[in-house]
Design goal:
Blueprint: H1 3-12, E1 19-22, E2 25-28, E3 32-35, E4 39-43, E5 49-51, H2 52-60, H3 66-75, H4 83-93, E6 127-128, E7 134-135, H5 142-149, H6 167-200, E8 220-222, E9 225-227, E10 233-235, H7 249-255, H8 261-267, E11 276-280, E12 291-295, E13 309-313, H9 329-335, E14 337-343, E15 359-364, H10 372-391
Parallel strand pairs: 10-12, 10-13, 13-14, 14-15
Antiparallel strand pairs: 1-2, 2-3, 4-5, 6-7, 8-9, 11-12
Length: 393
Amino acid sequence: MDSLSALRDYTVRGELDSITCVGDEFRFAGDYSFPCTTETAFRSKQGNLYTLETLLFFIRHHHLKHSEYIQSARLHRIPAVTLPDRKPLLDYLQGRIASTESIELLPVDEYRPDDPSYGAVPSSIPSFGAGGETTVPEPLDYVSLLRARERPLKDRESLLECRNRDFYSVLVASTRREEERHRIESQQRKDGLVAKTRLIGSDDRGDDGVGYDSTPRPKMHLKGSKIGEGVPIILVPSAFQTLITIYNVKEFLEDGVFVPSDVKVKAIRGAPKPDCVTVQKKLSRDRVVAAYEVRDKPSSLKPEDWDRVVAVFVLGKEWQFKDWPFKDHVEIFNKIIGFYVRFEDDSVESAKIVKQWNVKIISISKNKRHQDRAAALEVWDRLEEFMRSRSHS
């Protein structure tokens, strides 16, 4: 099936959400995959063939006014569908019409003398022998004919063939990545131990027991509040209605990759829910690594723990702040920076309450995972700016 027909099929069935972008290609669930920039059979009235990326973005945003759609397409750097093509394209993709003059027919195979199937007698038409008797030919094996025309894209052997590269260089690169992963995990365990030691308190012995600077760290007093001794705390909602939870916050803040919470829960099936997760500021542009604790149970915090709370990911519901030691939202977001993470395609109504608060809204894409890093960097930049401005006030 060609890309245009596949897109029409998924649109009519209401399964556009199952089309995902992986790398440089769109995957239609487990059925098909096409390059994002592949040209479809729908030709614009201006003469060019629309790409699959253009048509998919259009059908997902056709409810917008044309001027708003054009602005959104420019923002995402995707060529837009012209106004004269909107109605016939929408009618075709939604199944209201079977075809349109803008759709080009797929090219017909040319005559090939070496094709054994060319000129074969159809199984439904009898032929006559030399004596005039009727003979019925053997039925055609259509499966074999189809397989003879197939062109496999990849197999288990072609995957091992790397043009202009040998297996040794691949092995070296893979080994380096594995060593880097072990180094990061080791550093994370070390940071977790440091965080735990600081929380307990490194008494008057002047030694925290892990080889770090034993000089007592003074408290950082802030205007209107303070950051207590120990590792700063970031709070996330415990409800699954929010995009960032304690299950996926580590990948998002450390690696700049958004993984849905339900996917993470399935991956750690059977494991208990963590009470605390330690994340590192590895995405900082100045390459300074710092540890933060992430928690999702504010009720378990002691009064002195609230001095270390520096940020919160908000759910957009009033009940999230029930029993917090603050009188109102103004005091909360004066002492703690708030973040609200949303999909860029979500309606404005979903953030209606949040816009009334002093909260930073962070937008991420539903499908373009390469954009997650920029969103995570924005969180770190906002957090660092907030802490600097408060400490220097």
